[in-house]
Amino acid sequence: MPSTVKDIVKTIRKELSALYSSHEAFQMAWLIFEHLYGWSKTELLLNDNTKLTDSDYLFVQKALERLKKREPIQYILGKTEFYGLPIRVNPSVLIPRPETEELVEWIIQSAWESGSMAPAILDIGTGSGCIAIALAKALPNASVFAWDVSEEALKTASDNAQINGVKVNFEQKDILSPALLNIEHKWDIIVSNPPYVRESEKKLIQPHVLDYEPHLALFVKDSDPLIFYRAITLFAQKKLTQQGTLFFEINSAFGEEVKKLLTEYGFDKIELRHDLSGKCRMVKVRKPLV
């Protein structure tokens, strides 16, 4: 029988208590009701005596069963928020992380500070398109391009661009292909959040990530953990405009290694930045004048 909102929240907290903290379980409950009714957290509390319809009650029960299997709430609802924008997600794309919002903020600030309000931007390994779309939204005069090797990811990214009313040029490309070095186009900003988790780190990854998010977008072999950074750095060396900038999100364990790699390819004035949790997570470098 359908229950009240208060009953449902209590049940979700109880059923998920072995997997998540009470706060995390409440957050998931709120996201479900936000999805169903558009409620804020305050509205959720004010409507705690509201009775659910049969269909809504069934939706909540199915969502709870999936949550008990550690499936991410974002995949269950098919959406998340990134940089204040709605982003659709599914198992073909990674769920955007808060630290990536920090990278986007850094790129936008750098563009404003340089006075470049109409830059050509390339996002390599775009996934859901969250970086490219957020940049296109914040810099409406920019020409934004986004590549990914996954056809399914590009379909999701294209849908997200349409939802957010921005123009992004999506293309299926593999950055590891040497043929890309023959492209004539050049960009003022190149950004990438490539796969950077080593295979040996799988044992440290939470089940809701390891079991559900795409390994193609997460993992690299221990024998060559910088494979994508090397390919992108070489590409950026040839395809950035003079004084163009390259931004990376990185594995916090490889800050110095990425810095050394960039130096070997002739880049200088390398900036490493920590995320809000204190981990070395982002890199910015400007192409030197020749």
Automatic annotation (TrEMBL):
EC number: 2.1.1.297
One example GO MF annotation: nucleic acid binding
Gene Ontology biological process terms, A to Z: methylation
Binding site for S-adenosyl-L-methionine: 125-129, 148, 193
Domain Methyltransferase small: 120-202
Domain Release factor glutamine methyltransferase N-terminal: 9-78
Residues annotated to bind substrate: 193-196
Alphabetized CDD domains for the sequence: AdoMet_MTases (cd02440)
Catalytic activity as recorded in UniProt: L-glutaminyl-[peptide chain release factor] + S-adenosyl-L-methionine = N(5)-methyl-L-glutaminyl-[peptide chain release factor] + S-adenosyl-L-homocysteine + H(+)
EC main group: transferase
Keyword Transferase: yes
InterPro entries linked to this entry: DNA_methylase_N6_adenine_CS (IPR002052), HemK-like (IPR004556), N5-glutamine_MTase (IPR050320), PrmC_N (IPR040758), RF_methyltr_PrmC (IPR019874), SAM-dependent_MTases_sf (IPR029063), Small_mtfrase_dom (IPR007848)
Role according to the record: Methylates the class 1 translation termination release factors RF1/PrfA and RF2/PrfB on the glutamine residue of the universally conserved GGQ motif.
PANTHER family given in the database record: HEMK METHYLTRANSFERASE, MTRF1L RELEASE FACTOR GLUTAMINE METHYLTRANSFERASE
Family, per entry: Belongs to the protein N5-glutamine methyltransferase family. PrmC subfamily.
NCBIfam families: hemK_fam, RF_mod_PrmC
Record-given protein name: Release factor glutamine methyltransferase
Gene that this polypeptide is encoded by: prmC
